Target: ABHD15 protein
Amino acid sequence: MENARTGDTGDEFEGCNFLTFLVLKGGLFFFILYVVWIYFDSNFELGPRLVSKNSSLRPYFLQKCLGLRSPFVPTVWAFNPHVQTLLSAVVCPVTGPRFQREYLELKDGGVVALDWTTFEEKTLNDHRSVVIFVCGAVTTDNAVARVCHGAWRRGFRPVVFRQRGHSDIPLTTPRLQSFGDPVDFREALEYIRATNPGSDLTAVSLSTGCGVLISYLGEYGSSTYLTAAACISPIYCAETFYSSQAISNLYRWILLLRQKALLLSHVSCLQNVDSLDGPSALRTESLVEFEEMVFSQTNGIGTMEDYWEQNEPMREIDEVAVPLLCISSKDDPLVPTESIPTELFQTYPHFFLALTERGGHCGFFEGFQPESRAEKLAFEFLRAAQRLTWPPRPTRMTY
Model:
């Protein structure tokens, strides 16, 4: 009996030790978490900094967009900008969307595609406003699925604009869409508008796809058919982006590899371009040279000076007539901070820049289960801009 009582006492002692260990471990964890929070609170701007002109739209969007006011702390294991950038390519929703592809023949005989998004839920689409997602050269299928899923969750009906020759789109003319040429996008938007009468149209894009979207907003001004647009990690100056030595060789190599794969997939069609030297283009190690050898030649542009004059996204920026939100990070490995034109956002009333300390390129992931703050903020902004155009409800008269 004495041995039994001794054993019970030992078990109780071990239980107390284990409980004390758990309490100390938990306390240490929360203490470290508190120290980390204090460090970032004192050394970084935890929320996105809104850069814009002091117009009446600024307080409106600050009020309507929670993502502009709440703290942004990146996922604890993804503070590194390269990890954030990698996440943007691989994170996708558990339940992916289904796409119904629609091919659209353009005036010059070229073909683009519209991928209309649907989900498992039996939800009527009639009340959903259409948001067009403009894909770029490096946009992955995971990113497309994630953005479309986020748009659907927030009440939008997403459609993906696929450029000619991209994503298994047949190249029917010996021409590839250049970096900032919005002509194909214009024809696609006219079709979407005609087939969705009465729907508010908005647009969102990532990375290199922003070149087409920003160019479109500037070139067509007040006749864009769009209510608002949002660009995540846009390339503000394409010429600088292609020639900059500040960008890691790895990222330059990935983009060049994607461009070469595009050329290889359409050799039979592009061989009809007399001025195109395909073998030399495939051997080049320079993004600038590839752009000159392939995109400049297939579009019939003689010099790179003329090419950039026609393709720089910001070339007609003063003509933009709808609210545009750009979301950028100071640690973006592809877009150096000095290339972000903050003065521009402080000059024009329709331009808004959400600038964060961290986020990488198209990342901005937060939470233990990573979710992009930038994508949530983009749809908040588009929804708030739509409310600006809605007529006010009539006031009931009382007697």
In short: Residues 45-237+317-387 form a domain with the Rossmann fold fold (CATH 3.40.50.1820). The two ends are 90 Å apart (CA to CA). The chain has 14 helices and eleven strands. Residues 1-6, 391-399 have pLDDT under 50 and may be disordered.
